[in-house]
Amino acid sequence: MHSKKTVKRICPIKAVLFDIDGTIMNCHRAGKIALLKAAEEVFGTAGNMENVNFQGKTDPFILYESLSSAGFNKTEIAEKTGILKEKYIARLNNIIFSHKATLMPGIKELLLMLENSDNILTGLLTGNFRESAAIKLSRFNLNRHFSFGVFGCDTANRNDMPLIAKKIIDKKYSIDLDFGDMIIIGDTVYDILCSKHAGAVSISVGTGWTHKEVLLNHKPDFYFDDLSNTDAVVDLIINN
């Protein structure tokens, strides 16, 4: 008797992975305020967090960078990350709808266009914890557009995220996606670097806090000042 093997389909599917902060939206420090307060409540201090640049970094890495300056080691931080995350999520949830937030140009239209394509999987690749990502996106009712994601709770190292995304796509959709068919959209140099690390396609956008010249110096595959020209962005994604 011969055992049957599952044959995974290899097809022209594209996966488009979005960063959140600075790419999809600007929460105007709501996340930082909530994380600062949670760290102070759990550790008695937020360390150097007020001065830490959050751009492109995962939440676990931000916690380590902030709290190590106050004398906490990785083990001590890891042991309390669970309770800190609970308090952070609660605080963020309490302020997200009253705090100022800005949706970036073209995002809503672009997500609708991608959603209506049979050959595109739309997901997240973000340093946020899974729960904080959902809370931020709920501000503009955007969670429904994303079928999967890779988050800061999956890895503290952003360069690991494309491979995790590939494995999720493989498991969830039985699609053996080539990294050349993975498009990562983000506003920081870290989005460009993690794309290059995996061999994915990088679309860099100038809607965040990094100067255009800095982004272009890291040689993204494509660059837009913003995503308002949705037809051009979708054409690039489909035909690249």
Keywords:
single chain; 240 residues; alpha/beta; Rossmann fold; DNA polymerase, domain 1; 2 domains; two-stranded antiparallel ribbon; disordered N terminus
Task: Walk me through the topology.
Layout: E1 14-18, E2 25-26, H1 30-43, H2 59-67, H3 74-95, E3 102-103, H4 107-115, E4 120-125, H5 130-138, E5 148-150, H6 161-173, E6 182-186, H7 189-198, E7 201-205, H8 212-217, E8 222-224, H9 230-239
Parallel strand pairs: 1-4, 1-6, 4-5, 6-7, 7-8
Antiparallel strand pairs: 2-3
What is the structure about, briefly put?
The protein has a 6-stranded parallel beta sheet with strand order 5-4-1-6-7-8, with helices on both faces. It has a two-stranded antiparallel sheet with strand order 2-3. The chain has helices spanning 30-43, 59-67, 74-95, 107-115, 130-138, 161-173, 189-198, 212-217, 230-239; strands spanning 14-18, 25-26, 102-103, 120-125, 148-150, 182-186, 201-205, 222-224.
